[in-house]
Specification:
Layout lengths: L12 E6 L17 E6 L5 H7 L4 E5 L16 H6 L4 E4 L2 H6 L4 H13 L3 E6 L3 H5 L3 H13 L8 E5 L13 H18 L2 H6 L1 E4 L20 H14 L3
Parallel strand pairs: 1-2, 2-3, 3-4, 4-5, 5-6, 6-7
Helix pairs in contact: 4-6, 6-7
């Protein structure tokens, strides 16, 4: 097992569950993970319900927020609103918002910068399409997405990076641990060269695409931090400790 897999490493493990636009029956799914920080991102209408019922050591995340302060932006949610609801996390730059809603790297970066300025913690999503991977453009695409954010923020203390290859989300295709680890290593290398070695070593990086078929489909976690056996243990804990 690589040294990075040991739980004694300095970066605290984080497990995030994005419920996307799933029906309310998903409210019964809770991740029980030892030694990890748990962040759950239900659809926006369920945030207040979960805030009042969820165990106190689990964190809640919104799936999106606006680029700035609230105003005449119908349908949007501002960081201030989320903070007022005691929602400390937000997912930004998810591939579905980039591809379906046309959010550019610059728009995502603006959202990240503003959310951080309001005291929120951000899960920043990045990743390439299948066409980009086949053209060997993965490193370039991910670096471009992260650079847009790096140009607008001063501190990475409250940022978690989620590498989510678009070709491995809802397609049945699965990125291997080696593929994910390679991209994670490239992200750290880019941060080291362009932001600083301290940030590169401290920032937490998740894998946010499909995992092995034996794992719960709502579980997004870090391949470079967890061995396959521990992943399976987490899966079994979810099955036995939650009412699915």
């Amino acid at each position: 097992m690589p040294q990075s897999c040991w739980l004694t490493m300095s970066r605290k493990l984080i497990v995030g569950g994005n419920w996307k636009c799933m029906r309310i029956s998903c409210l019964s799914v809770l991740a029980i993970v030892l030694f990890s920080e748990v962040v759950i991102a239900p659809p926006a209408p369920f945030l207040p319900i979960l805030r009042s019922t969820l165990r106190s050591d689990f964190n809640l995340a919104a799936q999106n927020c606006w680029t700035g302060k609230g105003g005449a932006f119908t349908g949007e949610i501002s960081a201030e609103m989320l903070m007022n609801l005691n929602i400390p996390w937000v997912i930004l730059g998810h591939s579905e918002r980039r591809t379906l809603l046309g959010e550019s790297d610059e728009m995502v970066a603006e959202k990240v910068a503003y959310a951080l300025s309001q005291g929120m913690k951000v899960i920043l999503c990045c990743g390439e399409t299948l066409e980009q991977r086949e053209k060997n453009e993965t490193t370039m695409v991910v670096a471009r997405q992260i650079k847009a954010v790096a140009d607008k923020i001063q501190s990475w203390n409250n940022v978690v990076i989620a590498y989510e290859p678009i070709w491995a989300i809802g397609t049945g295709k699965i990125a291997t641990p080696q593929q994910a680890q390679e991209v994670h290593a490239n992200i750290r290398a880019w941060l080291s060269q362009n932001v600083g070695e301290a940030v590169a070593q401290a920032v937490r990086i998740q894998y946010g695409g499909e995992t092995l078929h034996t794992l719960h489909p709502l579980l997004h976690t870090t391949w470079t931090s967890l061995s396959t056996s521990l992943m399976y243990l987490i899966h079994m804990l979810i099955r036995h400790c939650c009412q699915l």
